[in-house]
Amino acid sequence: MHNVVISGTGLYTPAQSISNEELVESFNTWVQQFNTENAEAIARGDVEALAESNAAFIEKASGIKSRFVMDKAGILDPRRMRPRIPERSNDEPSILCEMAVAAARQALERAGRTAADVDGVIVACSNLQRPYPAIAIEVQQALGIDGFGFDINVACSSATFGIQTASNSVQLGQTRAVLVVNPEICTGHLNFRDRDSHFIFGDAATAVLVERADQAVSAHQFEIVGTKLLTLFSNNIRNNFGFLNRAAEEGIDAPDKLFVQEGRKVFREVCPMVAELIGKHLEENGLAATDVQRFWLHQANLSMNQLIVKRLLGRDVSEEQAPVILDRYANTSSAGSVIAFHLYQDDLPKGALGVLSSFGAGYSIGSVILRKR
Ligand code: COA
C-alpha cells in the first residue's frame, strides 16, 4: 500500500461574470412582461401573478454576490434566459473537455508533472454534457495520457467521490497518478425563470492530481490522511433530465427536467449530516475538529457552511479558517470545495491539517482529510 498525496490543483474560471443586480434586472423584466401579457387572466384569478426577485434577498439568503458563466448574453436576455452554447462538430473538442483541460494543465504544472506521469483521468461532475464517449476519455486524449478515463456523477459531491476513487487506485499501486477533473456548466441546468433558485449556480472547472507520495516532486503537496463518503436517498434536490424523456413527450421541457430543490429542507437536513460525518471521520483518524486549521467546504450557502463549522467546533470561525468563494463564484457544484482548496492553501505551514468536504444531491457527502507536507 502506498501513501497518497494531492500534488497539484488547477482552476478554470470563465471570462464572463453576472452580478446579482444584472441577474435580477433580467428576471424582473421577464416577470413584468409575463404579468402584462397575462393581466386579464391574472385579474380573473386564472393565472397567478409572478413575483419579482431581489438582489439584497439573494445576498442575504445565500451569500452570493455574482457568478462566473460561460455565456452571459444568453442568460440575461429576458426572451431566452439560458446560456447559448452552440453545438460543435464531433471533430472539435467539447466545451466541457476544453474547460477540464485548462484546469488539468494547471494542476499538472503545480504538481511538476506532465501527461507522461499520469495513468488515469476521472471526470467527476454533476453536469455531463453527453452520456458517451466519456468526457474523461476525451480529456485523456487531449492531454496525451496513456491509460484510462471514466466519468462519474455524484452531483455536488462528485469531486470527493472522485478523489477517493483515485486515491484507492494509487494506494493499491494500480496507477502512479490520476487526474480528477470537475468541469461544471451549472448554468446549463439552472431554471433562470424560477425565483427560488435562479441565482444559485455559476460555471467553473477544477482539477487535482492524486499521486504516490514517494514519487511526488511538487512543492504543493497534501497527504491524503483519509477519505469518507456517505449517501442517503432524497428527492429534495432533483433533476429528471435523461434519455428516457423522449419516451414521454408530455414531460419534455417541463421544469423538473432542470435543477429543482426544496432549499429549506436541504439546509435543515444536510447541515447536521455533514457535521456528523466530518466529526466521525476525524475521530476515526485520531483527530479532533480543533486540530483542523482549514475547512474547504462545498460552496452552496454561506449560512450552511457557518452552521456546519459551528456544530463541529462549538463556535463561529473566521473566513480564514473556512474560506468563502461562493460570493464571486456562486455554487459551482462539484468544483466549489476544490476552488476554495486551490485558492486558499499556499499560506498553510507544513503539517497543517485541512478538511475538504462536499455535500449535495443524493444526498451525497464526502470528507477528505489532508495534511500539508
Ligand atoms: N427574491 C426575493 N424573495 C425571494 C426570492 C427571490 N429570488 N426567492 C424566494 N424569496 C422569498 C420567498 O418567497 C419566501 O417568502 P415568504 O417568506 O413570504 O414565503 C422567502 O423569500 C424565503 O424563501 P425561502 O425559499 O425559504 O428562502 P431561504 O432562506 O431558504 O433561502 C436558499 C433559499 C435556496 C438560498 C436556501 O434555502 C439554500 O441555500 N438552501 C440550501 C441550498 C443547497 O445547498 N442546495 C444544494 C444544491 S447543491
Keyphrases for this structure?
two-stranded antiparallel ribbon, 373 residues, 13 strands, alpha+beta, 33% helix, 9-stranded mixed sheet, Peroxisomal Thiolase, Chain A, domain 1, globular, binds coenzyme A
Write the layout of secondary structure elements.
Layout: E1 4-12, E2 16-19, H1 20-37, H2 39-44, H3 55-62, E3 66-69, H4 72-76, H5 95-111, E4 120-124, H6 135-143, E5 148-152, H7 158-171, E6 177-185, E7 203-212, E8 222-231, E9 237-238, E10 260-261, H8 263-284, E11 292-297, H9 302-313, H10 326-329, H11 335-343, E12 353-360, E13 364-372
Parallel strand pairs: 4-5, 4-6, 11-12
Antiparallel strand pairs: 1-7, 1-8, 2-3, 6-7, 8-13, 9-10, 12-13
Helix pairs in contact: 1-3, 5-6, 8-9
User: Could you give me the name of the CATH homologous superfamily of the domain at 222-372?
Assistant: Thiolase/Chalcone synthase
Strand proportion: 15-25%
* Total beta strand runs: 13
The CATH class of the domain at 222-372 turns out to be Alpha Beta
Q: Provide the succession of SSEs.
A: EEHHHEHHEHEHEEEEEHEHHHEE
Number of helices: 11
CATH topology of the domain at 222-372: Peroxisomal Thiolase, Chain A, domain 1
End-to-end gap: 19 Å
Largest sheet report: 9 strands, mixed
Mean pLDDT over the residues = 97
Largest beta sheet: what is the strand line-up?
5-4-6-7-1-8-13-12-11
Give the structural class: alpha+beta
Helix content: 25-40%
Rg over C-alpha atoms, rounded to the nearest angstrom: 21 Å
**Oligomeric nature of the chains:** single chain
In the CATH classification, which architecture of the domain at 222-372 applies? 3-Layer(aba) Sandwich
Question: Hetero groups bound?
Answer: coenzyme A
- Overall 3D form: globular
